[in-house]
Amino acid sequence: MPFTIRHDTMIVYSAQPIHYLIEDQKAYSLRYRTSIGEVVSLHKAESDTLSFGTVVPVRETESEVFEKDSVILYDGERYRGYAYINPTKKRVTLLSVSEEGLPVENIYYDNIIHICVYKGKERLFSKDIKKEMFERVVPADFLSNAILSDMDFVRVDGKGYRYVATLCIPDGASCYNVHLDIDKNGNIVFSR
Fold it and tell me: Which pTM value belongs to this model?
């Protein structure tokens, strides 16, 4: 849809011109609010995936680290497993179609998850887990559109520890749950 910018107003030309008050304008981006209060951003594309300009809603990223911890008793000992879900600036871009039938490029941000296992105050294992580490157990086309979204500490036994990672397509119902079996030497085996 054609549009123009005049001072602090963007005018979108359709059957009836629509006027939006601009909140922020920079050389390569523009942000405004719709009549129902949603924040909408326009960005200069990094690729030519769209054949023409489209309003792109940009999801706000979580800026805080989300911490999860679980305690599992094994052989009379308490094991505490942590998962620190760290937001990154690594983009995951999904193409969809708007209600008007226009292509829309939705931008989401991936996570890195730091996991560690303690017995008392002794750290037994610690590692950063990234989405790329799952390429042998998750199909490449799914993995390229997914976000490493969650991690749960679920088991301790004589062989080691188990976490379950969740990789999901943003705003979708498709997810993979992958087991991370960690031996006492810190080696990880990924399996579904």
Answer: 0.67
